[in-house]
C-alpha cells in the first residue's frame, strides 16, 4: 500500500533535517512542519497496523471460525524480527566502532549520544532484545541508528495482545470494546499534562504501568482496528467517490506536516484516508499503482534503514542539497536489497503457519 511509503518518506525527511541539525549543517529543523513529519508518519503507521492486522484477523475468523494465535504470532515474528534484530546488531555492535573512528561533525554528535549511554548500555540492550525499545527510549538516551525501533516495539506488543482481544470479543462486542478503549484513551491524550501529573502521583508500580500505557499510542492502533470493523460490516460507498479520494489526497500531506492539528483525533482522519484509499481501486487518484505497491512492500526496510542511509550519505555529500536524493536513493537501495536477499527467506517460511492470511 502506497500509504506505507508516504509514512516512511515523512519520517525520512524528518530525520534528514534532524541529523543535519545535530551535525551543525544548515537545516530546516526549526520549522514545525518538519518536526511534525516524523511523529505523524509513525502515527499513520500505527493506524495502518491496527487496520490491517484487525482486517486479516477478522477474515481468518470468518473463514475458519477461529483464530490461530500461535500461527499469527509466528507470521508477524518472521515478518518483523529478522530485520529488527539486524538493526539492533548493527546499532549496538558495529556503529559504536564506526562512530568512534569517524572524524565528521556528525560522528562527534553521535559520540555524545553514546557517552550519555555510558553505564546503561547493557540495560538498554536487554530492553531492545526483549522488544521493549519504547521503554528504553523513555528511560535512556536514544541509540544511534536504532532509535526508530521504539515504534516497532509498540507494534510487537500490540500484536501479542490484539489477537486475543479479537478472539474473545466477537461480533458487536469487539465494536464496543474498541469504543470503550477510545472513550478512555482519547480524552486522556487531550489532557496530557494533567494525565501525567495524576499518573506520577500514584505509588510504584502503578505509576510506571500507567505511564507505559499512556506511551503506547493505543488510540491510533485501536482507531485503525475500528476502521477495519466498520469496513467489514458497514457499506460506505461515499468513501470511494473521486471527490472523497481527492480530499484524502489533500488531507494526507496536511496531516503529516502537522497543519491539521487535532491531537489524537488525527487518528480518525488517518482512518478516513485509509478507508477512502482502499474502497475503490479504479480511480486515477489512487496510490494503488505498481510502483507504490512495491514501495509499500519495502517500506519496513525504508523505515529501519533510513538513519543508517542518512549517516552514510552525509559521509559523501555532507549537508548540501544533494543529501536528499542521495539519502533517498541509498535508503531505497538498502531496503530493496534487504527485502530480496535478507527478509525474503523468512517471509517464505510464513507459509508454514498460514491461516486465512
Structural class: mainly alpha
Which residues sit in consecutive blocks of at least 5 with pLDDT less than 50?
none
Strand composition percent: under 5%
* Helix percent band: over 70%
The rounded Rg comes to 21 Å
Major sheet size, sense and barrel closure? none
Layout of SSEs?
Layout: H1 2-23, H2 32-64, H3 69-101, H4 105-116, H5 121-129, H6 133-139, H7 149-168, H8 172-190, H9 192-200, H10 206-214, H11 218-233, H12 242-256, H13 266-279, H14 290-297, H15 299-317, H16 323-349
Helix pairs in contact: 1-2, 1-4, 1-14, 1-15, 2-7, 2-11, 2-13, 3-4, 3-7, 3-15, 3-16, 5-6, 6-7, 8-11, 11-13, 12-13, 15-16
Short structural summary:
The protein has 357 residues and is mainly α. It has helices at 2-23, 32-64, 69-101, 105-116, 121-129, 133-139, 149-168, 172-190, 192-200, 206-214, 218-233, 242-256, 266-279, 290-297, 299-317, 323-349. The model has no long low-confidence stretch (mean pLDDT 89).
Amino acid at each position: 500500500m502506497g500509504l506505507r511509503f508516504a509514512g516512511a518518506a515523512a519520517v525520512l525527511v524528518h530525520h534528514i533535517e534532524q541529523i543535519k541539525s545535530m551535525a551543525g549543517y544548515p537545516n530546516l529543523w526549526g520549522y514545525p512542519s518538519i518536526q511534525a513529519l516524523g511523529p505523524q508518519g509513525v502515527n499513520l503507521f500505527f493506524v495502518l497496523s491496527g487496520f490491517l492486522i484487525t482486517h486479516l484477523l477478522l477474515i481468518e475468523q470468518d473463514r475458519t471460525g477461529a483464530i490461530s494465535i500461535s500461527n499469527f504470532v509466528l507470521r508477524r515474528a518472521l515478518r518483523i524480527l529478522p530485520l529488527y534484530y539486524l538493526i539492533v546488531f548493527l546499532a549496538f555492535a558495529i556503529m559504536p566502532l564506526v562512530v568512534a573512528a569517524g572524524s565528521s561533525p556528525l560522528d562527534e554528535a553521535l559520540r555524545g549520544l553514546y557517552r550519555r549511554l555510558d553505564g546503561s548500555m547493557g540495560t538498554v540492550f536487554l530492553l531492545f532484545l526483549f522488544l521493549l525499545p519504547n521503554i528504553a527510549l523513555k528511560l535512556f538516551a536514544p541509540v544511534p541508528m536504532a532509535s526508530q525501533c521504539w515504534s516497532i516495539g509498540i507494534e510487537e506488543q500490540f500484536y501479542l495482545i490484539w489477537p486475543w482481544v479479537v478472539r474473545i470479543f466477537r461480533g458487536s462486542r469487539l465494536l464496543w470494546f474498541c469504543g470503550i478503549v477510545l472513550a478512555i484513551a482519547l480524552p486522556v491524550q487531550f489532557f496530557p499534562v494533567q494525565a501525567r501529573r495524576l499518573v506520577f502521583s500514584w505509588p510504584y508500580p502503578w505509576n510506571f504501568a500507567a505511564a507505559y500505557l499512556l506511551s503506547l499510542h493505543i488510540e491510533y492502533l485501536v482507531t485503525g482496528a475500528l476502521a477495519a470493523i466498520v469496513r467489514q460490516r458497514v457499506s460506505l460507498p461515499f468513501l470511494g467517490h473521486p471527490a472523497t479520494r481527492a480530499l484524502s489526497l489533500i488531507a494526507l500531506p496536511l496531516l503529516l506536516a502537522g497543519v491539521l492539528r487535532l491531537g489524537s483525533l488525527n487518528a480518525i482522519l488517518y482512518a478516513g484516508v485509509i478507508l477512502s484509499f482502499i474502497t475503490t481501486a479504479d480511480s486515477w487518484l489512487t496510490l494503488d499503482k505498481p510502483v507504490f505497491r512495491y514501495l509499500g512492500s519495502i517500506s519496513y526496510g525504508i523505515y529501519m534503514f533510513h538513519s543508517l542511509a542518512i549517516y552514510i550519505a552525509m559521509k559523501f555529500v555532507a549537508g548540501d542539497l544533494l543529501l536528499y536524493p542521495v539519502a533517498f536513493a541509498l535508503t531505497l537501495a538498502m531496503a530493496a536489497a534487504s527485502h530480496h536477499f535478507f527478509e525474503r527467506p523468512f517471509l517464505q517460511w510464513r507459509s508454514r503457519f498460514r491461516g486465512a492470511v
